[in-house]
Protein backbone atom coordinates (compact mmCIF):
# COMPACT_ATOMS: atom_id res chain seq x y z
CA UNK A 1 0.00 0.00 0.00
CA UNK A 2 1.26 3.47 -0.85
CA UNK A 3 2.49 5.55 2.08
CA UNK A 4 0.03 8.35 1.31
CA UNK A 5 -2.90 5.93 1.46
CA UNK A 6 -1.64 4.47 4.73
CA UNK A 7 -1.38 7.97 6.16
CA UNK A 8 -4.90 8.82 4.97
CA UNK A 9 -6.31 5.70 6.61
CA UNK A 10 -4.46 6.41 9.84
CA UNK A 11 -5.90 9.92 9.85
CA UNK A 12 -9.39 8.49 9.30
CA UNK A 13 -8.96 6.15 12.28
CA UNK A 14 -7.71 8.99 14.45
CA UNK A 15 -10.67 11.13 13.39
CA UNK A 16 -13.03 8.27 14.26
CA UNK A 17 -11.34 7.99 17.67
CA UNK A 18 -11.86 11.72 18.19
CA UNK A 19 -15.55 11.44 17.33
CA UNK A 20 -15.99 8.55 19.77
CA UNK A 21 -14.28 10.49 22.56
CA UNK A 22 -16.32 13.62 21.81
CA UNK A 23 -19.57 11.65 21.80
CA UNK A 24 -18.64 9.98 25.10
CA UNK A 25 -18.09 13.41 26.64
CA UNK A 26 -21.44 14.65 25.35
CA UNK A 27 -23.17 11.56 26.72
CA UNK A 28 -21.66 12.08 30.15
CA UNK A 29 -22.65 15.74 30.15
CA UNK A 30 -26.20 14.87 29.08
CA UNK A 31 -26.40 12.18 31.77
CA UNK A 32 -25.44 14.75 34.37
CA UNK A 33 -28.06 17.18 33.05
CA UNK A 34 -30.74 14.51 33.23
CA UNK A 35 -29.75 13.68 36.79
CA UNK A 36 -29.83 17.35 37.77
CA UNK A 37 -33.19 17.94 36.09
CA UNK A 38 -34.61 14.84 37.74
CA UNK A 39 -33.40 15.98 41.15
CA UNK A 40 -35.07 19.35 40.58
CA UNK A 41 -38.35 17.65 39.66
CA UNK A 42 -38.27 18.82 36.04
CA UNK A 43 -39.58 16.91 33.03
CA UNK A 44 -36.66 15.03 31.52
CA UNK A 45 -38.44 13.77 28.38
CA UNK A 46 -36.61 16.04 25.92
CA UNK A 47 -33.28 15.56 27.67
CA UNK A 48 -33.78 11.78 27.51
CA UNK A 49 -34.50 11.98 23.76
CA UNK A 50 -31.22 13.86 23.26
CA UNK A 51 -29.44 11.27 25.40
CA UNK A 52 -30.87 8.42 23.34
CA UNK A 53 -29.81 10.18 20.13
CA UNK A 54 -26.28 10.55 21.49
CA UNK A 55 -26.18 6.83 22.26
CA UNK A 56 -27.15 6.06 18.65
CA UNK A 57 -24.44 8.44 17.42
CA UNK A 58 -21.89 6.73 19.65
CA UNK A 59 -22.89 3.33 18.29
CA UNK A 60 -22.45 4.57 14.72
CA UNK A 61 -19.07 6.15 15.50
CA UNK A 62 -17.92 2.91 17.12
CA UNK A 63 -18.97 0.95 14.05
CA UNK A 64 -17.10 3.38 11.80
CA UNK A 65 -13.98 3.14 13.96
CA UNK A 66 -14.15 -0.65 13.89
CA UNK A 67 -14.61 -0.67 10.10
CA UNK A 68 -11.65 1.64 9.57
CA UNK A 69 -9.47 -0.35 11.97
CA UNK A 70 -10.37 -3.56 10.15
CA UNK A 71 -9.48 -1.99 6.81
CA UNK A 72 -6.11 -0.94 8.17
CA UNK A 73 -5.52 -4.42 9.58
CA UNK A 74 -6.31 -6.07 6.23
CA UNK A 75 -3.99 -3.68 4.43
CA UNK A 76 -1.15 -4.49 6.86
CA UNK A 77 -1.68 -8.23 6.39
CA UNK A 78 -1.58 -7.89 2.58
CA UNK A 79 1.66 -5.95 2.77
CA UNK A 80 3.27 -8.50 5.09
CA UNK A 81 2.20 -11.40 2.86
What does this structure look like?
This protein has helices spanning 3-39, 45-80. It is an all-alpha fold. The protein has one domain (3-80). Helix 1 (3-39) runs antiparallel to helix 2 (45-80). The protein starts with a helix and ends with a helix.
Overview in brief:
With 81 residues, the protein is mostly helical.
Distinctive features:
mainly alpha; about 80 residues; rod-shaped
**H/E element sequence:** HH
What does the average pLDDT come to? 89
N-to-C span:
12 Å
Q: Strand share of the residues?
A: under 5%
Number of helices: 2
- Main sheet record: none
Chain oligomer state:
single chain
- What's the domain count? 1
By secondary-structure content and strand pairing, the structural class works out as mainly alpha
Question: What global shape is seen?
Answer: rod-shaped
| Helical residues, percent | over 70%
Low-confidence stretches: none
Radius of gyration: 18 Å
Q: What's the count of strands? A: 0
Explain the layout of strands and helices:
Blueprint: H1 3-39, H2 45-80
